[in-house]
Every structure is written in C-alpha cells, then in structure tokens.
Write a structure and sequence with these properties.
This protein is of the alpha/beta class. The chain has one domain. 51% of the residues lie in helices and 11% in strands. A hairpin with a 3-residue loop joins β2 and β3. α5 packs across α10, α11 packs antiparallel against α12 and α13 packs across α14.
Amino acid sequence: MNMRVVTLALAGLLSATGSASLAAQAQVASPPAPAPATPAPAPASPARVAATPAIWMVKDADTTIYLFGTIHLLPPNVDWKTGPVQRAYDSSKEVVLEIPEPAAATMQQVMMAKGLDPSGKPLTQKLTPAERPRYEAGMAKLGLPLAQFEPMRPWLAATVVSVTSVVKQGWDPNSGVERKVTAAAKQDGKPISGVETFEQQLDYLAGMPEPLQIRFLMSAVDDLDKVSVQSKAMLDAWMAGQPERLGAVLNSDLDKVPELRARLLQQRNARWATWIEQRLKQPGTVFMAVGAGHLAGADSVQAYLARDGIKAVRIVR
C-alpha cells in the first residue's frame, strides 16, 4: 500500500502544513552538513507551467456551487488559477475548504496531542526485526533523525515521511491550492469556512488501528525511490484535468484497504454531498475547494450527488 499520493490528494492541511513544519523541525535537529568551500550558484527558477485542472458546477435557480479539486502541495512554478477556475473564484461570494487553516501554534499542539504515544513506547520498538532496518534506512535516506521520531505514533511519522519525501522533490505547501485560495479570499474579503475541522482530519489517521498505521509507515519508507514517478503521475493527471486518470492513481492504493477507503473517502464524500445539498437551499455563489481525490472515481462527491438526483456539470474551457 503506497499512501503517499493518497495523503497528498485526500488529507488536507494536515499533510500540507503541519507535517511539513514537523519535517522542517526534524531536519533542523539533524547535524548540519559542512558548508562547501565555494558556494554553489543559485539554481535557475524553473519555467512556469500552465495547468488546466478540472472544475465542476452544481446549481439550482438561485445557488451556484463550484467544485474544485486541489493538490495540497505543489511545485511553485505551476499556474492553475486561470480560465474557468479564476472565473469561478471571481464570481463566488464565499470560499469553502476542507478545513480553514488553523493557527500554526494550534496545529502543532493538536498534532502533538494526537501524534505522540502517551505510553512512551519508542516507535522502533513497535516494528518487527524485519521492518526496523528498512525504516532506519529510509529515515537515513531523507536525513531525518531517528530520535526525533521515537515518541511519535506510526501515523504521524508516516505522514511526516510522506510529505518530506515530496518536499524534497521541490513541492511546497506554500504553493498548494489551499494556501493560495486562502490568501486570495482574505485579500478580497470573502468569508472562508470548512466542511471539517482540523481535529476531525487528524482523527481519520490517528484513529487507524496501529497495525494499519505501521503499514502506512512502512509503505512510506519502502517506496522512497518511487516518489518522483508516483507524484509526477498524480500531478500530471491533475494538471491535465483528467479526473478519471487521477482516480486510477489514487484508487489503486485505497482499493487494497477497504476500511481505509471507507474512512478517508466514501464516508467523507457522502457527508460533503449532503452538505452541498443543504447549501443549495440557500441562495448565493460558493467556491468549494477540496482534495482532488474526492472529486475522482466511482465514490466521488459528484457520484454521491448523482445518487440523489443532483448533477455536477464539468466546466470546459
């Protein structure tokens, strides 16, 4: 089970912000590498890349809700807020995300409360003799200090490892869709709300049985050599506006773990579809941005809406 792309496309600010911050702290704790005698020249900025991600519209006589699938971390050179996405945002009077971004201090406090093991049992002691050397090799490859992770529960260590591996590919939480949309909405005076809370999102991972958390962790460290290919496949599908292809990338992992599919995808999508149905009873125009994995595949939000006779229409360029 490779959960890296699932974490990036389904888990909201948990992956994009909190885990990236923890990873940065862990790397700061590592001994710094010696400075080269001659500083290397700064790398050239990568060329801008145009993206055409998918967006849908749900509407009735007096309400319009735009559904936009996001990636929570992105390379900084991706231009996605153009065309129908920009027009949908501009015409909306409010923004709805998975969760509004909490204060950094609050995020860290809650993650530590749910992500540290109160029993004090070190993380490496929860691994089998076969798993431990693989875990240690993966952490060494990322430059993450083992001691920093010993108090963590496996789900938190797995999430930090997953996000760190993608950040090292040049992806950035500050370039993620939610960060950009939040900043724009604040500047434009548009109210921001969420369909979940930060604690709820943590509980989806923190509530997993420990054996499943360890599977998540071992998948993250075992597949480090595949990060570039896997993340590129997800990004390419999103940038090209191909939700079916994106769904195939994500579902290949979730299909192997039905209980996780139900927990991370099906149950949440059903609740969000109900939220949309209720919101249609109030007039207005809403820009709703949630993880792209929720808007792809047979169990998408749009599929749950369709079961209740509500059609989500794809907006073309």
